[in-house]
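Hi R.,

As promised on Friday, here is the backbone we talked about, encoded as structure tokens. Could you run it through your design pipeline when you get a chance and send me back a sequence?
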């Protein structure tokens, strides 16, 4: 079950990211990515997390896993030493990275950045969320500073 959920989440994330990067960024597309992508990931995360924490679903912990806890590094390691913990954690990353990607795309469109410049930043965000977000913040800051000098 966990393998299937993990695979479905990955495919759905790739579909959302491909749409965000390649398709015309209409209001409908942005809404679809927001609700059918990010919203669905958030819903899956909350439901699966509650089911895991209440014991309603077996996370299939690997041998030697620590007791799951958010209080210590060993406890967090214990969370991720189960198929359920990895899947729920991965869905968490997918939701937040896609949220950051959608914000980057909307912000870049509003500021007039070309889609050619946006594509590599969005791909970096897809693969390594915070690195892509950092790249975007650096790029947009440079443009903002340049525009501020021009307006003086």
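Update: got your reply. Pasting your designed sequence below so it's all in one thread:
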């Amino acid at each position: 079950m966990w393998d299937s959920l993990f695979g479905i989440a990955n495919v759905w994330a790739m579909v959302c990211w491909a749409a965000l990067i390649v398709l015309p960024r209409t209001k409908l597309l942005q809404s679809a990515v927001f609700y059918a992508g990010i919203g669905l990931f958030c819903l899956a995360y909350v439901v699966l997390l509650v089911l895991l924490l209440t014991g309603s679903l077996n996370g299939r912990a690997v041998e030697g896993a620590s007791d799951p806890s958010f209080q210590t590094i060993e406890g967090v390691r214990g969370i991720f030493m189960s198929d359920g913990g990895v899947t729920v954690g991965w869905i968490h990353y997918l939701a937040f990275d896609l949220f950051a990607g959608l914000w980057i795309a909307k912000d870049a469109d509003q500021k007039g950045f070309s889609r050619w410049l946006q594509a590599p930043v969005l791909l970096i965000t897809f693969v390594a969320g915070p690195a892509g977000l950092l790249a975007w913040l650096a790029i947009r800051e440079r443009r903002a500073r340049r525009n501020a000098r021009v307006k003086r």
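One thing I noticed while checking it: Residues 2-151 form one domain.

Thanks again,
M.
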